[in-house]
Amino acid sequence: MVAVVWFCFEKQNYNHLFHHFGLPAWAIAFAIQYYLLYSLKNIWHLKLNFWYHLITFWLLVFIITWEAAWCANFLIKGSKAWMVSAWGITPVFILAALFMYGKKIKWPIVKYVNIYTEYAPLPVILLLFMWSIDTFAYSGNASPLPYIPIANPLDLTQLFILLVIIWAARQATPLKLPPFFYKYYMWLPGSTAFIWLNIVIARTIHHWAGIPYSIKSLNDSTLFQAAISILWGLSSLVLMVIASRSHIRKIWFCGATLLCFEVIKLFFIDLSGKGTIFRIVSFLAVGILMLIIGFFSPLPPADIKKELP
């Protein structure tokens, strides 16, 4: 394996691991690696075997992802969003395939199912969350295609990552997480999804209204402030209605907290300057949403206890 790494980088081609016969070299290296893992499974210490399987899997995911990103950048001449999206979509596809079809592969996954379904996904999921946060800095330019909210490479990749992570958390075999972290595991993709929706609004206003994609420009934009005010109000409505119907008080208080922040934002930001049509619209929209929330989503009774998954 070390020889293959040296071979690829000796050719001074740092962006394309499969260049200069890199593809057959890596294929042979991984074939030999898994042959050794199979042949020496009863000789190596359990911990050594455990870490060899993990490191081999992580290296395989990294190499496939690197090559997919290079191919996306090479084939699609335009925005770097395609290459960035490949860095996110490739590992999440691998995780989805692992959870869906992994148990049909007798060796090594079925033999070491706890390694591949409980331990191996954790660093990949952590890096996917870090990737999602990092891509918030990108404007979503999907050149040569026009920007369409949600239906663009960055937004679709982020949405798919969130769905796969939520789905993975609900599998019969839980990920090996500390009890405290696993108790609140579902809050992480939920909060990330909310931030992502705000970013979608920012990207849409940037492309469709010509507002520069920067924190200062968006913060000074009354259109952006009105749009996220409506988004926060709708999010509060959805959370509190779901909580009232499901009798989950934690979600209801989460929606109520978001609504409080929205009211504070409305008075100290949206209505702080001279009146504009966007400030008036946001004020009226949030007021209507608060009336709807008060009518359709009362606080669930305290005696009904349901915990989040």
Hey, roughly how much beta strand do the residues contain? under 5%
Helix content: over 70%
Which structural class should the secondary elements be placed in? mainly alpha
Give unreliable regions as ranges. 2-9, 303-309
Rounded Rg: 24 Å
According to DSSP, the number of beta strands is: 0
Q: What is the structure about, briefly put?
A:
By secondary structure, the chain is mainly alpha-helical.
Describe the structure.
By secondary structure, the protein is mainly α. The protein folds into two domains: 77-220; 221-309. Helix content is 72%, strand content 0%. The protein contains 14 helices and no strands. The chain has helices spanning 2-10, 22-39, 46-75, 81-101, 106-110, 113-119, 121-134, 153-169, 179-183, 187-209, 215-220, 222-246, 249-270, 277-296. Helix 12 (222-246) runs antiparallel to helix 13 and helix 13 packs antiparallel against helix 14 (277-296).
